[in-house]
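Quick check before the chapter quiz. The format below is the same one you will see on the exam, so make sure you can read both the input and the output lines.
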Amino acid sequence: MTHMTDTARKWLTLAIVSTALLLIVVDMTVLYTALPTLTHDLGASASGKLWIINAYTVVVSGLLLGMGALGDRVGYRRMFIAGLSVFGVASLCAAYAPSAGALIAARALLGVGASMMMPATLAIIRLAFPDERERAVAIGVWASVASGGAALGPVIGGVLLEYFWWGSVFLINVPVVVLALAAGLWLLPRQRPTGSNRPWDFIGSVQVLAALVCLVLTIKEFAKYAPSLTTAAVTGTLAALAIFVFVRRQRRSAAPLIDFQLFRNPYFSGGVIAAIVASVSLIGVELVFSQRLQLVAGLTPLQAGLAMLPLPLAAFVAGPFAGLLLARVGSRPVILLGLLTTALALCALALSADAQGLHRLGVLLLLGLGAGITITAASNAVMNNAPAERAGMAASIEEVSYELGGVLGVSLLGSVLSSIYTASFAVPTGLAVPASASDGIDAALLAAEKLPPQVASQLIALAHGAFDQAFAAVMVVAVLIVVAAAGSVAALGWLAKNKPQRLPQSSQAGTRQQQPQPVLTSRCSASSDNSSMRP
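Here is the expected output.
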């Protein structure tokens, strides 16, 4: 009976942390279909709506490494419960945010809660499942939730907006958080993970967060129709300074968040590049295309979410297929295959944005397959080209790479969309429309609601035309990024073959001891397969 009770407790623990993980990943994409509605209701500017999306991922990316280290000190159960509580409060604040600024602040607080929970989820699974075979099954469930949650986000958002107001996409988190808190306080294991005395580098976490915020501001400024070179220079300099100080601090630290010697391995570096670019193309393009489906094609949020579903689902299904290829040819050829497939799909999407039915389905499936293959192979390249004692750190870098790619995808592609729209929006002489209509298609459609029917139809046609030109420019930029990444991976592979690299060891090996970090995540189950160790 005791054995059955222990078994039930383990799997209930998995259900609790998987539920929390589902909340985290769903919130990364749930606003894709809700964004036009909440932008309309809150009157958010083009820059404001990008920050509504980005505030969450910027904070998660900046704090993820530091929160993992803090979990070592205070215990992962405490971090999980605290993070879940913060997430619930932030969800309530976001649901009833009275303005775009308040919503951005609430989204940032959501990111704090998510960054506290995410490292703890996998660590708790490791504590709850001492048996390796059971642990492998549990981690497989965890990985499926992580991938599937992103696919469900736009659909959940669309369903809720079909029947409720935009705040419901956040309010739905609250009862789930309350149930998970009650169950977690009762069931989660109380053991502390080993290495609980490891120092917490709070300053390093702040430096990463500052660098990301300044980098996003710089990208947004350069992508404006009339950028301020002074503002861009200031924010760019601050970003570079924060990165420089962070790198110098990590090199001197006895327990760094990142050991930069890992990047001396070309295969490891190639995997990180591929992970970032795959996330840029998948998340950035998904955001832009979902906006087009609603604002130009006229689909409802639910219809747009369902229309986008083949993309993330194909990315999820691509994992096992890529795993089979990895075992035969190694990670670098598979990464190149994934990147080139992604570039081909982006070209097809740019040339057939108005396609429907099987044509659109095929293009989105191809894009999802390309991104999914790239992500899987990149995970293998990162995990299999780091020393065993740096497996946790490599997993942390892998997760941050995906989050950083999401931030850059939304910032860069979203800013290009806004800039080209403004540049392409040309009002003919004699047509009186508000100046705000040139800021973005959301503002144009909002202005059209207050104009006479004939003028409104002309304004809507102008906005649709400008958006389509901006959409084509976004696709061109995305293709160039993906092709450049493929060239970089190929060049790094050539470098590795001509100049064999030793696996990187700990910084200043032999002069100090560093405790390995717990694995935060690995989005690809094949990364633990020794048969795919070949670069």
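If your answer matched, good. The chain is about 75% helix and 0% strand.
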